[in-house]
Design brief:
The complex is a heterotrimer. Chain A is mostly helical. Chain A has twelve helices and one strand, in the order ααβαααααααααα. Chain A has one domain. Chain B is built from 25 helices and five strands. Chain C folds into two domains: 112 residues, 2-Layer Sandwich (Beta Polymerase, domain 2); 317 residues, Cytochrome-c3 Hydrogenase, chain B. Helix content of chain C is 39%, strand content 19%. Chain C is built from 16 helices and 17 strands. In chain C, α2 links the parallel β7 and β8. Chain C is globular, with a radius of gyration of 22 Å. The chains are: A mainly alpha, B mainly alpha, C alpha+beta. The interface between A and B is large, with 81 and 86 residues.
Chain lengths: 325, 662, 500
């Protein structure tokens, strides 16, 4: 229990570092030094000191929405397995809970945007609900396929078993070292399925956290924004909560990507080290994708997102074909 | 059983008194409510036993031909639905009274309305209790006709008649299927009691399949599955006051009861019938929610959302049937439990949503969301309670919608722990994805609805709100909201009520599986606790800081108008553009040509129902074309009609002579 | 048909030599001429006579085919009206509105009788600045998006009104005038000879273009001859400015589609170019270089070699980034078929400069009205079909290439070390002078009319943005609203050049 709590805090800390890492990677690609990795954390702290400007058009829902969004993200993190071991809370079907509690946060973010009566924010809200609706089926197909493969329906249980299952090796409680882990993966025929699953999660990060090619987080053009423009009228501590929640989403989905590769039974310290290393890799990947691709035309984004669903269907097909009954 | 009869009698007395006192309209409503309360008391004390324990209460009535002997039996399943009916009907009665306070002295008859309302409730309660085909059909017909009258409250409205006629036709087409099914079952099974149906179904073979699907189609009309739903978006918006809740939630429940009863009588279903129902339900869910997103009238959005929820309930029933067919008892358990739970939840939150929008209607006589805006400032109570309803219907934590959806999700992934057929696994995963898709689309639909109507600035300066609604209208909404929250936080209260119904269907009840639901509500409590903590921290941080008020960021423009706000139609435009193949939308743009347009640019869009346009309208036109071929028969000349009579007599004479061998 | 005085760019004529038309004659003539291929209005400016009872309107048309300018005048009584030319010649739309605002002459039947800049001392008053009559929308399903004047990024103020349904833009209308400083009025104060700083500040990114156009006028008015050396330096500076601003455009387009390598590389290349300008005259944008009578700085041999080096590096590096940028599918899918302006539309509203060239019209005053050293070059215009953002990006690449070759040629030729600066003398009275310079956006034209005792009666400035803003409004119609910033950046028009 304590162990899981420590890992949960670790995930939150890593999540707060992720935006800074991604920006650093983008800066290095662009030939610049870039801001410090801790800059987003400094920004959040700075916003805590500021007071707020509230629009007269808004209702109390606008004031409460960022808090609900943050708490929803924090609660979603409760079921994510970090560095190979179980999460703080796990039960059958917790991935459904994960998706729906994040949807609760999204619901209130959208309402907060519509509350201001601004056409920019309405535009961003409209795009947000469209794209997130399109990415949901992909997530569920992947999780359903994984559940089918492992016979379990909880994040913690699914992800702890996958690497071992692929090789049909029994992983005993003593644990597996990193070298053995690499051997496990190298011989796995179902590597394709796992890679595709990771691609889907990566696309999910790009959609949920509004990264290129879905959205440009550094753009100053309100007419093209998705997430940035929904929070145009938020200030002070509300804005801090929003940035924190956004960082959390990257962190949690990154942790899921890592969980797909990391089996449960690694020795404790190697698990944590490997986790941190893999999260760094995720940040570098996202930063690199952002640096080499241009932003998609808004009408092409749904096709991109539905592409994720197609990849998920490939995973399902592979696993169904391999499933003997 | 006595209590049940007394309860029914109370309702009828209440109705008749309302009719007698219709001149003094306030009294009409109050009589109905008082007697409704008595009825509720009696009925509650009655159903406690069959619902909580395993006992069933039976009574036999001897009625004259052609009905014959009528068996009235209340087992767990019937008790569950009776409870649902009476609770929601009573709450709807309270709301209707408040609603009608706005329409007194306007030539509408509240007394007649309450009379038919009570008849409707009585007929519904009896429909779920009788076990005789003929009695069932008679009560079904009474249900249809009384709901027809109840719906036509605003009978002076022009399109009211079209709506009412569509409704009555749809109900009777459905009834036709039911009559055929009951006839076949009765004749083949030897008796018109439900035992006859049981015999036919358990015998299996083609006949059982045909009968089952005839029943399914007949009940699908009531439940609202595609393509039998086309009357729904007309009927639900037309229903005034609390009736909308009754029709959308409770009548759908009655349809579900009937389907579950047939499934219960059928024993082990065929695999393919489960898949067929699954396909129809998935189609209903996706089609329903996509069409809901394309509409801009709140009541139509709610109606199509009912189609979506009918699909979800259908998916759950299909899961149950597949579980029975494949011999996976856990899947069957979760499927049917999820269906029952969702029916109850749906009645609650759909009622809540309809109450909310009807409250808005009493103030401004419109429910077009692009004419409204910023209503939360004028009607805060209604707005917040509507928000609770929206959160519940999308299935978001910590409300009841999530729990029932969670159970349905469970039914599809519980099979992973058991080795099941590849086809079932694949279909399950895809169904999970479709459920997720409809959930996310429901989020789009209800953020659009709530956000456009209640938030932001008013879009039409001519529409003026007088006040918040009266207590008769807000109290029922409050009760339903609290139910949503409590069921979400403490689902145990409902799950213990599922034992009876599941037993009467022959589905095993797995106590331990429901523990996940309890765990989930535990997490909800953690969520609420963390939220309180965060809000408290925010309060502390902001305590000594000044909060400035300003206008919404308008880029420094000097003359911001209320047109510069997103409309509901624009909000859903990306989704409607993507789903154009399954929608029916009429666009009308008048773009002034030329480089320097002067005339205002006008654009209007009207959403419809694709299935209605493709199938019903075409069928209707074809049918009318066919009938028009024969319109010459109605020539209008008396001489011709005399000739027809003569010809008929001659034909009969010839036929008689031929029969007699001459 | 002595209705028009035909001159070559740049020209100075005595006022009395300019023919005076009657109003019906003028209307008929202008419409007829504009129907011909290649005739466009440059100026349509009115000024009040001393007794304030009459308004003299000077008309300058550019004939690209005959390579000449046509001058004429009309005299109206104050507050007179005439039948608007716009229905038959849409290219006159903004000129007529401006004439009304500045001189009060009413164009009857103009489809868009709206204010242009809402100048402080406007004669034709069309109400309050905040009450600009945007096109209205009917229908409760549509919404309007009002962007500006304050924008999220640090760009100039302008107000854009979109009529939208969801992501689809049905109509865009642009209102400018937020940066009106009264430039034309300031030119009339004091001597005409000390207005270099003012002309350099008309549009901060077109310093050389406006400064040169003004200097030509001052030199014509004082009969000052400048040497070939001066012409060469001025031309080199103009082309350097063109290269630098085209690189800004390309970098901006890359930034707006989120293609960060493009934004970084084009930005770096531009820095190198403007640093070269810094080496030449001490200002990265070229301020303080051109004065009436010559230039204040020289390009000696050492600087010559440095500039050639910079151009070599630019040539090499821009090849690479262009290769990447123009072949990336994700980039192309954003640029192609976005914000298209058809050739007919471009011709009808009279787009100039790169905006004309990108939709298939060959409009380049370096070729049709060449000044000084350009007359010796036989420039071929780069013209692209397509009219979309891709064409606008590609045309910049082609022009950069062209400018680089021109600069190399001019740097390479051995020019005698002549005088760099001659102090100008007295200003002629009662003359009209007009100059046309091809700035990097398009054709810039200044016109001055002097009265008695070298006083300035009127100074008219036409920045190419004056012609092109309508093009942006038309390009965005029927596009997605999220493509608007890209279209705006691809046009890259001057707000203050329009606002004056």
């Amino acid at each position: 229990m304590m162990d899981a709590a420590v890992r949960y805090v670790l995930m939150i800390v890593v999540a707060l570092l992720m935006p800074g890492l991604i920006n650093k990677v983008k800066a290095l690609w662009g030939g610049r030094q870039g801001a410090s990795i801790l800059q987003p954390i400094y920004d959040i702290c700075r916003l805590f000191h500021k007071s707020q400007v509230i629009s007269e058009t808004t209702s109390p829902i606008f004031r409460v929405a960022p808090s609900i969004n943050l708490v929803a993200s924090l609660c979603a993190g409760l079921v994510v397995p970090v560095a190979g071991k179980e999460s703080l809370i796990y039960f059958n079907g917790d991935f459904v809970f994960f998706a729906y509690i994040l949807a609760l946060g999204r619901f209130f973010t959208v309402l907060g945007a519509l509350d201001t009566g601004s056409s920019f924010e309405g535009m961003g809200a409209s795009r947000e609900v469209t794209f997130s609706a399109l990415i949901e089926p992909a997530f569920f197909i992947i999780m359903g396929a994984m559940a089918m493969l492992t016979g379990y329906t909880s994040f913690s249980q699914i992800f702890s078993l996958i690497p071992g299952l692929l090789q049909n090796i029994k992983i005993n409680d003593a644990g597996v070292s990193i070298a053995e882990l690499i051997r496990l993966w190298a011989h796995s025929e179902l590597l394709v399925a796992a890679v595709c699953g990771n691609i889907v999660f990566l696309i999910m990060i790009l959609v949920e956290a509004s990264r290129l090619p879905v959205d440009d987080p550094t753009t100053h053009l309100e007419l093209t924004m998705i997430h940035e423009v929904m929070v145009l009228d938020n200030s002070g501590i509300d804005l801090a909560f929003i940035q924190w929640a956004s960082a959390l989403k990257i962190g949690m989905l990154g942790t899921l990507i890592v969980a797909l590769i990391l089996p449960a039974a690694l020795y404790m310290w190697s698990a944590v080290m490997l986790y941190l290393f893999l999260m760094l890799l995720v940040a570098i990947t996202i930063g690199s994708i952002e640096s080499v691709m241009a932003r998609l035309r808004m009408t092409h984004v749904p096709q991109f997102v539905l592409g994720a669903s197609s990849i998920a269907l490939i995973v399902l097909a592979i696993l169904l074909l391999g499933h003997k009954q | 059983m006595c209590s049940l009869y007394v309860g029914v009698l109370m309702l009828m007395i209440g109705g008749i008194l309302s009719l007698i006192f219709e001149k003094s309209e306030k009294m009409a409503g109050l009589f109905s409510i008082v007697f409704g309360a008595f009825a509720a008391f009696f009925i509650f004390s009655f159903i406690k036993i069959p619902l909580m324990t395993d006992k069933t209460i039976t009574d036999i009535l001897n009625m004259s031909m052609p009905i014959g002997i009528v068996r009235i039996e209340v087992d767990g399943l019937s008790a569950f639905f009776i409870m649902l009916i009476i609770v929601l009907a009573f709450i709807a009665m309270l709301y209707s009274h408040g609603y009608f306070l706005h329409f007194y002295n306007k030539g509408m008859s509240c007394g007649k309305h309450f009379f038919f309302f009570n008849i409707l409730i009585v007929s519904m309660i009896l429909v779920v209790s009788v076990r005789n085909a003929i009695a069932f059909l008679i009560l079904w017909e009474i249900m249809s006709i009384s709901s027809f009258f109840v719906m036509s409250f605003h009978h002076n409205a022009e399109d009211m008649r079209e709506v009412a006629i569509k409704y009555i036709i749809a109900m009777h087409v459905g009834a036709f299927f039911l009559i055929v099914a009951f006839l076949i079952a009765g004749i083949e099974g030897g008796t018109f009691d439900f035992e006859g149906i049981e015999r036919v179904m358990k015998a299996g073979g083609v006949l059982a399949q045909v009968v089952f699907f005839l029943f399914f189609i007949g009940f699908a009309f009531k439940i609202g599955l595609i393509p039998f739903h086309t009357w729904l978006p007309y009927a639900y918006p037309a229903a005034p006051g609390g009736t909308a809740a009754l029709m959308a939630g409770v009548m759908k429940a009655v349809g579900v009861y009937c389907l579950l009863r047939i499934v219960g009588l059928s024993g082990r279903p065929e695999v393919w019938s489960g898949y067929v129902i699954l396909a129809i339900s998935v189609g209903s869910a996706v089609f329903g929610i996509l069409t809901a997103i394309s509409h801009n009238d709140v009541k139509k959005v709610l109606s199509f959302s009912s189609v979506e929820n009918a699909g979800i309930i259908g998916i759950a029933i299909a899961a149950g049937m597949l579980g029975l067919a494949y011999d996976l008892p856990e899947m069957a358990f979760f499927g049917f439990a999820g269906a029952l739970f969702h029916v109850l939840n749906h009645a609650i939150f759909k009622g809540l949503l309809f109450f909310g929008i009807n409250s808005v209607y009493t103030q401004v006589y419109t429910t077009d969301m692009d004419k409204l805006g910023g209503v939360i400032k004028k009607m805060p109570m209604t707005a917040y309670l509507f928000l609770v309803g929206s959160l519940a219907i999308v299935g978001l934590p910590p409300f009841n919608g999530f729990i029932s959806k969670f159970l349905i999700y469970n039914s599809f992934f519980i099979i992973t722990s058991q080795k099941a057929a590849g086809l079932l696994m694949g279909v399950s995963v895809l169904t999970l994805a479709m459920l997720a898709l409809t959930g996310a689309l429901a989020l789009a639909a209800f953020t659009k609805t709530f956000g456009t109507v209640f938030l932001g600035e008013p879009r039409n300066n001519k529409i003026v709100f007088k006040s918040e609604s009266n207590a008769w209208m807000t109290f029922p909404m409050l009760v339903l909201s609290l139910m949503c929250l409590f069921i979400g936080l403490c689902p145990h209260g409902v799950t213990i009520m599922l034992r009876g119904p599941l037993k009467s269907m022959g589905v095993p009840y797995y106590e331990h599986n429901l523990e996940t639901a309890t765990m989930v509500s535990g997490v909800f409590l953690i969520f609420i606790f963390m939220l309180a903590l965060v809000l408290f921290i925010k309060f502390l941080v902001l305590k000594n800081k000044k909060i400035q008020k300003a206008a919404t960021w308008g880029c420094g423009y000097g003359a911001v108008s209320n047109k510069m706000q997103y409309t509901g139609a624009s909000f859903s435009e990306p989704l409607t553009r993507l789903s154009k193949p399954v929608l029916s939308m009429d666009n009308n743009i008048k773009k002034p040509n030329g480089l320097f347009p002067v005339k205002a640019l006008s654009y209007s869009v009207k959403a419809g129902d694709l299935i209605e346009r493709l199938f019903i309208d075409k069928l209707w036109h074809a049918f009318r074309w066919l009938l028009d071929r024969f319109s010459w028969i109605q020539s209008g000349y008396t001489g011709h009609y005399l000739l027809y009579i003569l010809l008929t007599i001659v034909a009969m004479a010839i036929a008689a002579m031929w029969r007699l061998g001459l | 048909m002595y209705k028009w005085l035909k001159v070559k760019n740049p020209a100075i004529v005595p006022l009395k030599d300019i023919p005076v038309l009657t109003v019906p004659e003028m209307l008929e003539e202008v419409v007829d001429l504009i129907k011909n291929e290649g005739v466009r209005p440059l100026h349509f400016a009115g000024r009040k006579t001393h007794d304030n009872r009459k308004v003299t309107v000077t008309i300058v048309l550019a004939d690209d085919v005959e390579n000449s300018l046509l001058l004429s005048q009309v005299v109206f009584t104050a507050d007179d009206c005439y039948d608007s030319l716009t229905p038959q010649a849409p290219i006159m739309h903004l000129f007529e509105r401006e004439l009304y605002e500045q001189a009060g002459i009413i164009p009857l039947g103009h489809p868009w009788p709206k204010g242009v800049r809402y100048e402080h001392d406007r004669v034709g008053d069309l109400g309050n600045f905040n009450e600009y009559p945007y096109l209205q929308s009917e229908g409760i399903r549509m919404h309007e998006v009002a962007v500006g004047p304050v924008h999220a990024g640090i760009i100039e103020p302008g107000s854009f009104r979109f009529l939208c349904y969801g992501e689809q833009v049905w109509h865009l209308e642009i209102q400018l005038g937020y940066q009106h400083r009264g430039v034309e009025g300031l030119f009339k104060t004091g001597s005409i000879l000390n207005k270099s700083h003012l002309s350099e500040s008309i549009a901060g990114d077109t310093v050389i273009g406006h400064a040169w156009a003004y200097a030509i006028l001052a030199e014509l008015l004082t009969d000052t001859e400048v040497t070939n050396r001066v012409q060469a330096i001025r031309a080199i500076a103009l082309e350097l400015e063109r290269i630098a601003m085209h690189l800004v455009g390309l970098g901006g387009i890359a930034m707006d589609i989120g293609y960060l390598p493009g934004a970084s590389v084009y930005g770096r290349l531009r820095t190198a170019v403007i640093n070269t300008m810094l080496k030449i005259c001490g200002s990265r944008f070229g301020r303080g270089l051109i004065r009436p009578g010559g230039v204040l700085f020289d390009i000696d041999t050492a600087l010559n070699l440095e500039i050639v080096d910079v151009l070599d590096v630019l040539y090499r590096d821009i090849e690479k980034i262009n290769e990447l940028f123009f072949n990336m599918p994700s980039v192309l899918s954003r640029l192609e078929h976005t914000g298209t302006v058809s050739k007919e539309t471009a011709k009808a509203i009279g787009l100039v400069g790169i905006m004309a060239k990108m939709s298939g019209l060959s409009v380049d005053s370096r070729i049709s009205h060449p000044i000084s050293i350009y007359a010796n070059e036989r420039l071929k215009p780069h013209v692209l079909d397509g009219g979309d953002v891709f064409a606008r990006a590609k045309i910049r690449v082609l022009e950069i290439d062209q400018s680089m070759r021109l600069i190399r040629r001019w740097l390479g030729t051995e020019v005698k070390r002549n005088e760099l600066y001659v102090k100008p003398g007295t200003v002629k009275s009662n003359h009209l002078a007009v100059s046309v310079v091809e700035g990097w956006r398009g054709e810039i034209s200044h016109m001055v009319i002097t009265g008695n005792q070298s006083s300035v009666l009127q100074y008219k400035v036409k920045d190419p943005s004056f012609n092109n803003w309508m093009g942006l409004a038309l390009a965005v119609r029927d596009n997605g609203i999220s493509d608007f910033p890209l279209c705006n950046k691809s046009f890259d028009l001057s707000y203050c050049g329009f606002d004056l």
